């Protein structure tokens, strides 16, 4: 049986990395230009700070989604668990 480190990443892992890599890449591009990051969005809120907040929200939301999917994929459903304990086939 292959170890956990030798298995290819799951689809959920690829989605999490992709969803978080895109805002990070845009954030790096914004940080390369100080004039771009200083654009006022609303009052004293600049584009750089607004993008950092969006990136933080995507990170927190993506991590919550990934943890939810990971936890639910390893827990057997009640019908499956009941049939296994009763010795029935699924």
Verbal overview:
By secondary structure, this protein is mainly alpha-helical. The protein has 4 helices and 2 strands; from the N terminus they run ααββαα. The chain has helices spanning 11-32, 34-37, 47-74, 78-86, and strands at residues 40-42, 45-46. A two-stranded antiparallel sheet has the order 1-2. β1 and β2 (45-46) form a beta hairpin. α1 packs antiparallel against α3 (47-74). The longest helix has 28 residues, at 47-74. The model has no long low-confidence stretch (mean pLDDT 78).
Spell out the blueprint of helices and strands.
Layout: H1 11-32, H2 34-37, E1 40-42, E2 45-46, H3 47-74, H4 78-86
Antiparallel strand pairs: 1-2
Helix pairs in contact: 1-3
Key features?
90 residues; mainly alpha; two-stranded antiparallel sheet; 2 strands; 70% helix; elongated
How are strands sequenced across the largest beta sheet?
1-2
Poorly predicted runs of 5 or more residues: none
User: How many E strands?
Assistant: 2
Mean pLDDT comes to 78
β-strand amount: 5-15%
Q: Kindly state the percentage of residues in helix.
A: over 70%
What is Rg? 21 Å
Which geometry do the CA atoms define?
Answer: elongated
Structural class: mainly alpha
From the structure provided, what is the oligomeric state, counting identical versus distinct chains?
single chain
Total DSSP helices: 4
Report, as a whole number of angstroms, the end-to-end distance. Answer: 24 Å
Largest sheet: 2 strands, antiparallel
- Helix and strand pattern: HHEEHH
């Amino acid at each position: 049986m292959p170890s956990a480190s030798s298995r290819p990443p799951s689809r959920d892992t690829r989605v999490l990395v992709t969803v978080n890599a895109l805002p990070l890449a845009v954030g790096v591009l914004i940080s390369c230009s100080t004039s771009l990051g200083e654009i006022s969005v609303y009052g004293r809120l600049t584009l750089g700070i607004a993008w950092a907040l969006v990136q933080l929200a995507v990170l927190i939301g993506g991590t919550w989604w990934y943890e939810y999917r990971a936890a639910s994929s390893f827990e057997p459903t009640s019908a499956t668990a009941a049939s296994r304990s009763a010795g029935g086939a699924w």
